[in-house]
Amino acid sequence: MADKTPLIQPDKGQEATAIHLVNRDGFADWVKKLSAGQRAALAAQKFDGGGYQVGIVPDGDGFFAVGGVANPESLSSWCLAKLAEVLPEGTYRRVDGEPGPALHGWQTAQYVFDRYKKPERPVGPRVLLTKEAGRIDAAIAEAKAVSLVRDLVNTPAEDMGPEALEAQCEKLAKAHSAKLSVTKGDALEREYPMVHAVGRAAARTHAPRIMHLTWGKEVDPVLAIVGKGVAFDSGGLDIKPASGMLLMKKDMGGAAHAIALAGLVMGAKLKVRLHLLVPAVENAISGNAFRPGDVLKTRKGLTVEIGNTDAEGRLILGDALQRASEEKPELIIDFATLTGAARVALGPDYPALMTRRDETAEELIAAGKASDDQPWRLPLPEAYREWLSSDIADLNNSHTNGFAGASVAGLFLDKFVGEGIDWAHFDTFAWRPVAKPGRPKGGDAYGLRAAWHMLQTRYG
Predict the structure, then answer these.
(1) Which residues of 248-264 are buried (b: 16+ CB within 10 A; e: fewer)?
(2) Residue ranges per domain, the chain?
(3) 82 is catalytic
(4) Are 49 and 23 in contact (CB under 8 A)?
(5) Which of 185, 317, 332, 444 has the fewest Cβ atoms within 10 angstroms?
(6) pTM
(7) Beta-sheet strands, E only, within 131-240
(8) Where do the Cytosol aminopeptidase domain residues begin and end (predicted)?
(9) 8-110 and 143-459 share one CATH topology?
(10) Can you give the C-alpha Rg of the chain in angstroms?
């Protein structure tokens, strides 16, 4: 999307095809305004104003479009998305109103992942006009960020390993004149021992590393963004079944979210001192893989007994969160495709959110509701901390009773966040199993827009 014609443009009175929005309640009165032939055309298409319905109505030598929505007076991000998916190439204008928040779905509906397979019938851009020129740049940036998450997650692990994530961070740093440092090899083992342990079994070309990008004035409040970058997760020696590995290219989805959010922060020049940390590994199997029962050192100095090598994401995040905490940030936000338990509880559409402070959760939930990207808060129960106890180390990385898996993983991460620091953790799926208007099947962003709108409110 970043390299194509902008899909939303200022309305300067140029020629455009009209789009009418109606709902079932108002359809009977609205359709009376049409000619008999136009009513017949809609009837033939079985259009009655239902949600996401699209009608094409002949009008002289051309046509106009009709879209079914829940409420034409209050649009969501996705109200125009079906239209953007199915209308022919051209320029369009909503009549009797502005697109408003639907500018987002108009763009994301036209996303195509074509790195490996070109569309059989490519369609040119559908451009939407708006008189709200002040919305355009922000809406384009937000849609590009979502598309970036989709691109990174959709790319298979062979082409999106730790080195590719490093290249993505380099590209981001160059675009915004940020500073990037990358730690790997012996230095990684010394400074980030859990990141090294998880990734050391991978092939040399997919060797573990951690990227640390810094941007902004040092006098501004410190904002840290951390993303889990497990490029592929075999489960390690506690190996996943084949079905469990099928989508594990998406296990770097947290890194994709973090990189995209950092790009939005820098692009909008928020008044923060940004620290982006992306630990990147492949959880592979070889003779030097870390084992169940091993005790790992950590950057913080705690020791961690490995109860399960498939609970590796929290290990690499632990070292990264400790490093982020050393900057005394005002806020840390982390993203991770962390637990199946969060998906069992909430399904794919709602990212699990855990925070230390109620007000931070309230800000993120409110921002998510307003941008059609709502997280759902799960607790960090003090009573469950004992489930991470170990007989021989400071804590275990995996509890055995099977209860509250997402919250217990959050409690593990909490051990590595500095005392008193405001912290929000998103356990996100990063994958859409079934397509919806504006949201094709495949990699997707969940929680990204909630976090972004919250940060704009807090720091903009």
Answers:
(1) bbbbbbbbbbbbbbbbb
(2) 8-110, 143-459
(3) no
(4) yes
(5) 185
(6) 0.97
(7) 179-184, 209-215, 222-227, 229-233
(8) 308-315
(9) no
(10) 24
- Outline where 248-379 has alpha helix (H): 253-267, 313-325, 340-346, 358-370
Cβ neighbour number for residue 208 with a 10 Å cutoff: 28
DSSP 8-state assignment for residue 176: T
* Catalytic residue flag (residue 314): yes
Q: Which fold has domain 143-459?
A: Aminopeptidase (3.40.630)
Q: What is the CATH number of domain 8-110?
A: 3.40.220.10
Q: Is 39 helix (H, G, I), strand (E, B) or coil?
A: helix
pLDDT tens over the chain, length 460 residues: 444 679 999 999 999 999 999 999 999 999 999 999 999 999 999 999 999 999 999 999 999 999 999 999 999 999 999 999 999 999 999 999 999 999 999 999 999 999 999 988 888 999 999 999 999 999 999 999 999 999 999 999 999 999 999 999 999 999 999 999 999 999 999 999 999 999 999 999 899 999 999 999 999 999 999 999 999 999 999 999 999 999 999 999 999 999 999 999 999 999 999 999 999 999 999 999 999 999 999 999 999 999 999 999 999 999 999 999 999 999 999 999 999 999 999 999 999 999 999 999 999 999 999 999 999 999 999 999 999 999 999 999 999 999 999 999 999 999 999 999 999 999 999 999 999 999 999 999 999 999 999 999 999 8
Both tokens of residue 349? 């559409």
C-alpha distance across the termini of the chain, in Å: 26
In this structure, are residues 257 and 146 in contact, taking their beta carbons and an 8 Å threshold? no
Residue 212 has phi, psi (to 5 degrees) of: -135, 105
Residue with tokens 């902008």: 6
Q: For the range 132-135, what are the long-range contacts, defined as Cβ-Cβ under 8 Å and sequence gap of 24 or more?
A: 132/98, 132/99, 132/100, 133/10, 135/100, 135/103
Please identify which of the residues 94, 209, 314, 439 carries the catalytic annotation: 314
CA 186 to chain centre: 32
Catalytic residue among 240, 297, 356, 458: 240
* Backbone angles phi and psi of 183, in degrees to 5: -115, 130
